[in-house]
Amino acid sequence: MEDYKITNGIISIAVHGKGAELSSLKKGDVEYLWNADPSVWNRSAPQLFPIVGTLSGNEYRCSGRTYRMTRHGFARDSMFSVTKQADKSICFTLRDTPETMSVYPFPFVFDVEYILTGSTLTYTWRVTNTGKNPMYFSVGGHPAFMCPPSEGSFTGCSLKFGGQEPVKDITCRTINPDGLLQPRTDHYALADGILNITGDMFSHDALILENSGIHAVSLLDCGGKEYLRVDFDTDIFGLWSPQDKRAPFLCVEPWYGRCDCVGFSGELKDREWGNTLESGKVFEKSFSVTVM
User: Are 112 and 91 contacting, i.e. CB atoms less than 8 angstroms apart?
Assistant: First the structure.
């Protein structure tokens, strides 16, 4: 699989053409991104489009028809084209095809751009509706960050949550074994915005935070030193690591959309946290990762 590489002399990245998936993020000799070892999890940072999460029954309804689509959509398994490349940025583009139209009946252009500035990597998503009718979609990131190399695991490390107001506690929604949002929630009290990572934190799969006021998540090593920070403006994000694998990585996932609730049977346009894009319009959002 071909990798495209860029550097600004401080950090460097590599990106697969398949899925426009980030495969490496390094500062010096330190690798911050999971290596997609298939014995644990065979991805590093997939792009989630045109859905985020799982559809109820793996299907959705639109304009009187029923379509099937697997978790997180088809972009992560599609070949993107490089449409712009400079010393410190690179842009990948996916367009609709007869194959995508058979499962998702909307003409589109989906751009994923990576920009390097100092020690910060910025992801930018641009979704363009090239059709004549409104387009319904979700988009999100799923980057998996390695634990600090001095630690060997996340046990004893912590997360720091930041927002305009101090974060005193968080309530996380959880998903069931079918990948659907369930009524159960997990509640955590924080000390100075910090949550210690425990071995059973992801026993109910991903933790989903909605309308929390949080717009930054930092990974701290066992000494409380910031190792990496993710900044975003979305009002929903996920945290995940495969519980049964005891994996040495943690995903911090900014989303514009999420999985269906248990029992949801509405139309695609009615999905919670979904986005509507009128004909000819562009949806553009970004998030950033800063490494220390």
Answer: yes
Tokens of 68: 């099937």
Provide the 3-class DSSP secondary structure of residue 165: coil
| Pairing assessment for the beta strands 207-210 and 169-175 based on DSSP bridges | antiparallel
What end-to-end distance do the CA atoms of the chain give, in Å? Answer: 29
Please say whether the dihedral angle defined by the alpha carbons of residues 9, 48, 72 and 261, taken in this order, is positive or negative. Answer: positive
pLDDT tens digits, 208-259: 999 999 999 999 998 899 999 999 999 999 999 987 777 889 999 999 999 9
CB atoms inside a 10 Å sphere around CB 191: 9
| CB atoms inside a 10 Å sphere around CB 112 | 24
Q: For residues 232 and 255, give the distance between their C-alpha atoms in angstroms, rounded to a whole number.
A: 9
Q: Which residue type sits at 199?
A: G
3-state secondary structure of 120: strand
Structural element, H or E, at residue 141: strand 139-141
Residue among 154, 266, 141, 259 nearest 205 (CA): 259
Token pair for 246: 């005891």
pLDDT digits (tens, 9 = 90+) for 150-203: 666 777 789 999 988 888 999 999 999 999 999 989 999 998 899 998 878 888
Q: How many CB atoms are located within 10 Å of the residue 67 CB?
A: 15
What is the largest distance, in Å, between two alpha-carbon atoms of the chain?
A: 56
Q: Is the dihedral of CA 149, 150, 152, 153 positive or negative?
A: negative
- Cut 0.85: pTM above it: yes
- 229, 216 contact by CB (below 8 A): yes
- Pair 107, 131: CB distance under 8 Å: yes
Residue 77: C-alpha distances to residues 17, 140, 208 (Å): 10, 15, 24
